[in-house]
Amino acid sequence: MSRAFISEKSVNYHRFKQTTMKIRWLATIALFAFFQCKNAAPKISNMTAGNEDIIGLASAIQLLGVKTTVLLEDYFLDVSKIDSVRPPLSLSALLSPDKKELQLTIEGDLPFFENLSIFAGALRYDFLIKAPQKIPVKLDLADKNYRSVQVKGEMNNWNPADGKMQKNGENWSVEFELMPGNYQYLFIADGKEMLDPANSSTAPNGMGGTNSLLSLRGAGGGSPPLIFSKKAEKDKVIIGAENQPAALKVYWQNHLIESRKVAEDFEIALPEIAKTVKRSFLRIYGQNEFGVSNDILIPLEFGAPLNSPEQLSRADNEAQIMYFVLVDRFFNGNPQNDRPVKDARVLPIANYQGGDIAGITQKIKEGYFKSLNINSIWLSPITQNPDSAFQEYPEPRRWYTGYHGYWPVLSYKLDDRFGSDAEMKELVKTAHENGINLLLDYVCNHVHQDHPMIKNHPGWATQLDLPDGRKNLRIWDEYRLTTWFDTFLPTLDLENPEVAGVQSDSAMYWVKLYGLDGYRQDATKHIPVDFWRLLTRKLKTQVMAPENRSLYQIGETYGSRELIQSYMGSGTMEAQFDFPLYFDAREVFGKKETSFKFLSASLNETFRYFGHHSTMRSEEHTSELQSH
């Protein structure tokens, strides 16, 4: 039996949770009608279509423990409009004087989820509140005269510095608080990585090896609800259910609306105001004493549920089919701008090949993307890169050019090898005329050493030489927010407000100048989450709200689902690439010996963290080399 186990504290917690949930469930059934009236949705007549204080669908608020601080500027364009807060009976709420923060404190028996209401002027906004789900877990390793022991894994984002174990009698021990699910991990004893000798459960690491696997179950004891859309009528939607929930939480946009129990189904009357909005959404959640249901997302068009894929457009993030174009390697539409670097040390494949913006425009006009049913193109970075080659610091010390675009030397200039300002505007115009979004891959984390930002402000870079004598190069987890990609690519100190302001403004420049539809944000996890909050707020207040324009941000984070999720929400990004799911799918489809149960467990974890209707992407598709 594994020495990685749920602590006694956790066992008692789950016994308490199951008992109180059963008691609460009986009370919920008895009081349901009362609270449906007491906590009814705002009067529909008070809503004003297209003139609300929150852009998009507000992400759920996950409580982290007894106390949780909610940053209200993540949700509201102008927090000064907030009048008051109505928490559920099991929570107390304290609004800061500047109305930027809301502190929620658990003071009673909390269901798996609840509703929080915030009043701003004549409108009431409603937010789904999720109860804390983490379980205290202790990992043990029997001592064999080790001098130091650490653990690294999905529970600490593979950072051994956050997994130092303490000697406790005959064992080394460390405790974590973890969500139910599966966690791969390794011990590091005196600098040597090793599997957990007391845990026979393992999982492939995606690189040909294996890691120890810790599996944590939830409270158990029964089945949570399964809800599904059954039929749509003229002014209502019927929701069916298995493992019956007593009630549903139903949101139209960001407003709680009622559902009515009819026999074994639930009936939802569609609000009249939905008829005045081209696109709005219903979000539906259920729970019983054993857990929460899947979530349902129903898009509406002028108040009626969509019944055909043809009604979807490029503005529907959930319907995006994305294609990655590496500009230099896609198609050469204008040979006049070809300018490879002249350096004998650079292999031809590591040099510029001639692909450009004009080539992408040409392929859109020829129908290439439409033939693949593509409605969203992700462009590799297009800012100016250096004119010379540079040698990588680690072995094998190869020479490269900036054909990929990830070495910016100027933040406000289009690389002349990719095209002109006029050609870029023509690309955006052509894409939109053909129902295609353009997302720009933007590099915020670092710049090239020749960038004026670094030349004029060398102190804006993070530290390259560490106190222990190492160079802070590609230490992806231990020095996640400061590590450099190479010695000629200084990582910017984005915790410095001045640096964050400059970088976020440069990102705004491109989306404003060309009318782009959003960003694929490079190296997301290597940048403080507060920077993404700053940029997202600028996008909302300077573009999305005044221009009534939809923008989409998707991030790149290699790490655990918890780390990935920490960069998502109303104040940051709509989505990320779900690399854990991608790597697990690759294992299952690529190896006969790997069971589909492994992929099923991975998919369920994705649902648990990101919901059943997210805009996550499971892998990055690269463009093919068509012109060479």
Write the layout of secondary structure elements.
Blueprint: E1 5-6, H1 8-38, E2 61-62, E3 67-71, E4 82-86, E5 91-95, E6 101-106, E7 113-120, E8 123-130, E9 135-142, E10 149-153, E11 166-168, E12 171-178, E13 181-189, E14 192-194, E15 202-204, E16 210-216, E17 226-232, E18 236-242, E19 248-252, E20 255-257, E21 260-262, E22 265-269, E23 279-288, E24 291-292, E25 296-301, E26 304-305, E27 322-325, H2 357-365, H3 368-371, E28 376-379, E29 383-384, E30 390-391, E31 399-400, E32 410-414, H4 421-433, E33 437-442, H5 452-456, H6 497-514, E34 518-521, H7 529-547, E35 552-555, H8 561-565, E36 575-576, H9 579-590, H10 596-610
Parallel strand pairs: 2-8, 27-28, 28-33, 33-34, 34-35, 35-36
Antiparallel strand pairs: 1-9, 3-6, 4-7, 5-6, 7-8, 9-12, 10-13, 11-12, 13-14, 13-16, 15-16, 17-18, 18-22, 19-20, 19-23, 21-22, 23-24, 23-25, 25-26, 29-32, 30-31
Helix pairs in contact: 2-4, 6-7, 9-10
